[in-house]
């Protein structure tokens, strides 16, 4: 009797278990997941391919821009060099023409050489001007300006008004956009006390002679103080003294010094 009562219960449990453990719903879910993953993978592949295409396009654009930039830079460089080439053409023609004139049977005079060198200097200044560098000149008598002048010599002057001014100009200066890029080399005057100038000498020569005399030393000035004062010890260097015998040797048969040694 107990087994009969338990049998319906076992049959119902088996039916419930059979409904839960069936393969139909699980297989459908797996298929959906598989299809979804397959679609995502295909979509990822398409997006990756598009990204590769965009990257390749960017690289092509960058390469083209770089090439154009290099071409523009080469063009700018050539445009910058063109004025220099033009100036060099003229310099070449000047030098070649000067060489031909000097090789002629009747060569030009030194004055013609000076004009040729002046023309060469003007051509160089013109070439520099095409690059933005302007030449400026300095005239003697202008006040010395440390921002535009480079002193290469100091010349003595007796006129106080010329002290601190440009006495002579060695080279021109150059500036770019108002900024000095190469100072002009000048000689600057320095006042010296006015004194009589010997006949046949210029003021500068007289001033130079006075400077030499002021800096010159006699042989006795180079001796030690102990020697000059007579307190030198044994072994110290003493000045040479002329003896009577040496003086007699310098005299002639008549007892008088030779003509070259007479006062």
TrEMBL record:
* Keyword entries, A-Z: Chaperone
Spans traversing the lipid bilayer: none
Annotated region Disordered: the residues are 1-26, 191-263
Q: Which domain of life is it from?
A: Bacteria
Record-linked Pfam families = GrpE
Bias type Basic and acidic residues, positions: 1-14, 239-254
Descriptive protein name = Nucleotide exchange factor GrpE
**Biological source species:** Actinomadura fulvescens
């Amino acid at each position: 009797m107990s087994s009969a009562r338990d049998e319906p219960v076992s049959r119902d449990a088996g039916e419930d278990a059979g409904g839960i453990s069936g393969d139909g719903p699980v297989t459908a879910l797996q298929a959906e997941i598989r299809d979804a993953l397959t679609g995502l993978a295909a979509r990822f592949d398409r997006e990756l391919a598009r990204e590769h295409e965009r990257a390749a396009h960017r690289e092509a654009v960058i390469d083209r821009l770089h090439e154009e930039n290099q071409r523009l830079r080469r063009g700018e460089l050539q445009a910058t060099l063109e004025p220099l080439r033009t100036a060099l053409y003229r310099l070449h023609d000047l030098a070649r023409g000067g060489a031909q004139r000097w090789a002629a049977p009747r060569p030009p005079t030194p004055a013609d050489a000076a004009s040729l060198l002046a023309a060469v200097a003007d051509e160089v200044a013109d070439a520099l001007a095409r690059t933005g560098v302007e030449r400026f000149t300095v005239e003697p008598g202008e006040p010395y300006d440390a921002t535009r002048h480079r002193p290469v010599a100091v010349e003595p002057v007796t006129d106080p008004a010329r002290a601190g001014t440009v006495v002579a100009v060695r080279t021109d200066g150059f500036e770019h956009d108002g900024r000095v890029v190469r100072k002009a080399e000048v000689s600057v005057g320095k006042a010296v006390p006015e004194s009589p100038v010997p006949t046949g000498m210029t003021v500068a020569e007289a001033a130079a002679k006075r400077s030499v005399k002021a800096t010159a030393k006699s042989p006795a000035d180079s001796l030690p103080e102990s020697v000059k004062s007579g307190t030198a010890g044994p072994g110290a260097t003493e000045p040479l003294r002329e003896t009577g015998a040496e003086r007699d040797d310098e005299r002639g048969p008549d007892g008088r010094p030779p003509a070259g040694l007479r006062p």
